[in-house]
Amino acid sequence: MLAIRPLAESQRLDVLVLPVRPAEPAMEGDAPAELVPTAVALPDGTAEEAAALVPVARLSGRPGEILTHLRPGRGPGRLVLLGIGDGGESSWRDAGAALVRAAADETHITIALPGEVTPAAVRGLTEGLLLASYRFRMTDADDPPALDGVDLLVADPAAHESTVATARTTATMTHLARDLTNTPSSVKTPQWFADQVASASADLPDLRLTVRGPAELAAEGFGGILAVGGGSASGPRLVEMDWHPANARTHVVLIGKGITFDTGGLSIKPVPAMKLMRKDMAGAAAVVAATLGAAALRLPVRVTTLAPLAENMVSGSAFRPGDVIRHYGGTTSETTNSDAEGRLVLADALAYAVRQLKPDLLIDLATLTGANAVALGKRTAALYSENDDLAADLLAAIAAAGEAAWRMPLHTDYVEYLGSEIADLYSAPTQGAGSVVAALYLREFTGELRDRWLHLDMSAPSWADGDQAELTRGATGWGVRSLLRWLAGLD
After folding, report:
1. Which residue in 82, 115, 403, 468 has the most C-beta neighbors within 10 A?
2. Which of 5, 12, 101, 269 is labelled catalytic?
3. Given 343, 452, 481, 485, which residue is catalytic?
4. What is the pTM of this model?
5. Using one digit for the tens of pLDDT, what is the confidence trace for 270-284?
């Protein structure tokens, strides 16, 4: 991962980056953008030269706009003019992402930040640099990226060190969630996932880990997890992590869907729909990484994470359409579609959290339905909750973190579709809006926490088809940044 250091004085000026912003509305003919005054003095003549380039290059100052100017035989040898838009956190995140891609062949860059730069701007820049430089490789070839160091020139480096450290932790945990999700399912069994969690949590104090295997799941009545994982040679697991600092006043339970591969079971998917199903545990990856981040940042909130892990495979022991499944706590579900398996494992985890953990707030993340993308496109999660304050707070954290979600309705007239003649619930109705009905089904397992529960259907934004801003092609780690923002704001 890139080394990023706040400094008051430049130590290497091979490549110097200077910020450019849109100019204030002015007379016709004036330049649309302007060079931003920096916090520290620049080499003689550099600022004047850069300022002269801005109108000639017709720069707009939009976030991520880049112009590279060569200066042979002089120092710095390259000037990079970087658009920062309005100078807010989001604009700086976009700028950092564009810069790290444009400078991929450099070994070191120095960014002269504005004199009035805020902690939020520094956080956005740092996250953009680190997140957009992510790469996932499964090869023994030694092919490290060329760029390994970034210096941030600021008036008071000490004032920004904690901000850079927080952004680094956030990016590190997002990288972890991306790694877990990108890993092929030939490697990523439920036990492998549990082993990765154990390894990542080993050095974090006050973090307790419990992993239930098939025997424990059967003994305690986790029928949904056992049914979904029953068709695989790699048995299911339930990972439970508990970050419990002594000064915590709020207890949050995070639950993430962890289907390490989804064939659709006996209701088998077509090949195009199956080929990316290694991402069907992105919710589990996000909540695990967020909890590790909370522990690393020593956030003063108790976080218990549940990751129900199963591989939904086709075999003689796979659960059948029409089976009735008995969940943790005794509620039964009739299922006629084994490709609607995620809600079955989540139901067990929700019921367990309500009965045994009794938290103040209950949040679940899941790559649950294709209807999420149909309704909201590729970048936006669907958010469901009956608690207006909880929904507003989490939506604000999601927006601040640079992710996207939209609150969706929980239509009461769809509840009748969940009625079964032979079980308590019908898990996969064909009537109604798919994402909404799935959320209503999960709500049935929230019990007394119904008014303190929030569900995020994040199937669409969990994966990116190409590089865009801070996202790289493949797993996005969606939810890690948002959860850490939200958790940091809780008392």
Report:
1. 82
2. 269
3. 343
4. 0.96
5. 999 999 999 999 999
